[in-house]
Backbone:
């Protein structure tokens, strides 16, 4: 099945090349990072030498695709025009800056409709995306599967499919499946991973599945809570992640840990999942 493409969320505070070096130090060959401070404000311009350093390292170390994460406070379907406007401008700016690191993924939370209803939420998300996506951009934008906390849009595969279908530039969109979120959203990936993937394929199309977030969950299936747990310590258990990292349909997809850990914890989760994948090969 080839080498697992796995990493974790890293901080941009010491620059892009530094993130690459940190990833290598924990045997990661991909990683995630916030494209800007989640609490808003302007994003720093990227330093070309720093980005070139990362690109060279990724080439040398055979990295897979990176999975950048939009600020989680960004809401394309807020009821407040100013919030929607900020989300659109932030996403456009992020995508423009990401072109200096071409060909990677940009993952975002579709949004919370805050009482306006799912239909209105989906309409606003599609309008936002249509205004922001640019034909010819090298970044694929990923909708993250959500737990369904509050009024989050994107808890079901049907909602994600409606966003993709409703967007005129849908060919630039993919999906990032978060294991904690789909479980909290009600999908039984613990007992029926293949059945859930079949359903994903039927509703969205597996060719849209571009990345995974690997998180155990502190809560039972369908809880809509979104509380991540360390791998093997939550409701999903290590068997679920064994099934994920050895599943042929998921082979080669970047897998990002967002578990409650510091670097050593990520290193040991990566080592664990790599050894499981190797044993199965
Ligand atoms: Fe996320
Ligand atoms: Fe996630
Ligand atoms: Zn989450």
Residues:
């Amino acid at each position: 099945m080839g080498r697992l493409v796995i990493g974790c969320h890293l901080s941009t505070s010491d620059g892009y090349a530094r993130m690459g070096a940190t990833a290598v130090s924990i045997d990661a060959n991909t990683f995630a990072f916030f494209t800007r401070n989640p609490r808003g404000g302007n994003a720093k311009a990227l330093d070309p030498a720093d980005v070139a350093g990362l690109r060279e390292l990724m080439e040398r170390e055979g990295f897979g695709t990176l999975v950048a994460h939009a600020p989680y406070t960004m809401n394309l379907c807020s009821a407040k025009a100013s919030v929607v406007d900020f989300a659109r401008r932030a996403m456009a700016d992020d995508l423009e800056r990401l072109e200096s690191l071409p060909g990677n993924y940009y993952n975002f939370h579709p949004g919370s409709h805050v009482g306006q209803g799912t239909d209105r939420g989906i309409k606003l998300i599609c309008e936002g995306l249509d205004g922001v996506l640019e034909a010819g951009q090298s970044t694929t934008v990923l909708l993250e599967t959500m737990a369904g906390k509050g009024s989050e849009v994107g808890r079901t595969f049907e909602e994600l499919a409606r966003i993709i279908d409703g967007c005129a530039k849908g060919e630039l969109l993919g999906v990032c499946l978060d294991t904690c979120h789909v479980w909290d959203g009600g999908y039984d990936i613990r007992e029926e991973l293949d059945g859930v993937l079949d359903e994903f394929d039927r509703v969205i199309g597996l060719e849209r599945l571009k990345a995974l977030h690997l998180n155990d969950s502190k809560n039972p299936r369908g809880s809509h809570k979104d509380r991540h747990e360390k791998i093997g310590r939550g409701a999903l258990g290590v068997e679920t992640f064994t099934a994920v990292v050895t599943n042929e349909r998921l082979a080669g997809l970047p897998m990002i840990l967002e578990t409650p850990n510091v670097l050593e914890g990520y290193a040991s989760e990566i080592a664990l999942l790599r050894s499981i994948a190797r044993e199965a090969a």
User: Anything to note?
Assistant: The chain has a mean pLDDT of 96. Residues 144, 178, 213, 258 surround fe (iii) ion (ligand 2) (CB under 6 Å).
